[in-house]
């Protein structure tokens, strides 16, 4: 008898997750949007219109299932995860909520559940790869550069969003943390821009973003760690102007007697410009470098990913690279191969050789390929 999975959120990534898992499991998708659910119904996925913010309704909805996948916007992530834990269900989550997930660790352990957080492409695969190497070498430096971009550069933003627009804006305003010489450094997002060439893409611009997340806590012995976001050159200035002018602010302002948050208006205005048009293609590019000492010599491991929209299925690259990392973790948890209790960031998944190999093969089978090169330093 097939195990039952419920996917919370039927957006572009949630849809890719549901379709992939339906090959092996009985899948139901929950969302408040009837339009999003209709797209899945056409593919034979069971759906149910549900207000995920209603704690009682959510607990009742997930009760029959063996595992929950969280694919909701980040601002809903923490409360959703708490509700799932209270219901005593295992979960794999990609919501990337801004709060510290370890505040739920004691509750998850008390409920004897496994909660895999941040299980996408970045954070996600970067953590998994670092977790693998950190168990096998003394890592001295970790760098992750990552971005999802449209193939066609369209003025003014030369960017399209796969995730919730509010979640994208969070990248531009949340202070960026990185580790330098063993100390945590905090800088504003969009700082330290740098031009970098990528084969098959050209020159992109990187800037500090808050992508290390759990690694700052779980990898305290690594003296240098940083994650930077990639965009087409020139976009930083647009974003800085909007941010400094208050368009990304969460503080309410009074407009003709009406209280509004500028970020909500900005998201509403920008989303149509950031939305991919039918048939429009995009790609995901990522470069991970891990330096350190292994078996008495200095080594550099470099992983490169360049993934594009899958034309036959019209599955977006960001949905593939994020969603299929998530579905790999779902298999490991449901098959009982990964059963660590409590809050489990992706680096925990990567520690075991068998788990790491399974995830990499799972992705390769779906044509998401990380090319790895080793060199002596």
TrEMBL record:
Keyword Oxidoreductase: yes
Lineage: Bacteria, Pseudomonadati, Bacteroidota, Cytophagia, Cytophagales
Cleavable signal peptide: none
PANTHER family assigned: ALPHA-AMINOADIPIC SEMIALDEHYDE SYNTHASE, MITOCHONDRIAL, SACCHAROPINE DEHYDROGENASE
Coiled-coil stretches noted in the UniProt entry, renumbered to this chain: none
Keyword Kinase recorded: no
Organism in which the protein naturally occurs: Chryseosolibacter histidini
Alphabetized Pfam families for the sequence: Sacchrp_dh_C, Sacchrp_dh_NADP
Protein name: Saccharopine dehydrogenase NADP-binding domain-containing protein
Residue ranges occupied by any Saccharopine dehydrogenase-like C-terminal domain in the UniProt entry: 120-366
Key words of the record: Oxidoreductase
MF annotations from Gene Ontology: oxidoreductase activity
